[in-house]
Protein: PTTG protein
Organism: Chloroceryle aenea
Amino acid sequence: ACSQFSQSSCEECLKNVSCLWCYTNNTCIDYPVRSIIPSSSLCSLSNARWGVCWINFEALIIAIAVIAGLILVSITVCCCYCCYCRRRSKSRPDEEEEWLARKREERRLQSLQRMHERKLKHDEIRKKYGLLQDSDNPYSRFENE
């Protein structure tokens, strides 16, 4: 089917997707489906056209390889970055949690210390005015008698 477009134009040949245009002898040939890249005995890669006439097969292969390489590299970089972020985000809450627990414990201890100091101060005032019942002193006055 493609050989009938030989000696015509590249555009006419490439309207059929299964055809390959060779500029060396202006022939339209069936694309070798069994091998992905056509052999050089059929037509050199720099003179072969497939899909569009303005880019040769060699440049098309290089462009596709570069684009595929860029996609693979970007996917790899994204995966590594995401794994790094995930690991970092998992460790960060633990550190923050520990820091918050330490601060909470410090505040609790300071609160207990202040409460103890207030109790001592109030006990002194109660002793001074005789409001505190000393259990140590056996001679203390009994209020209920």
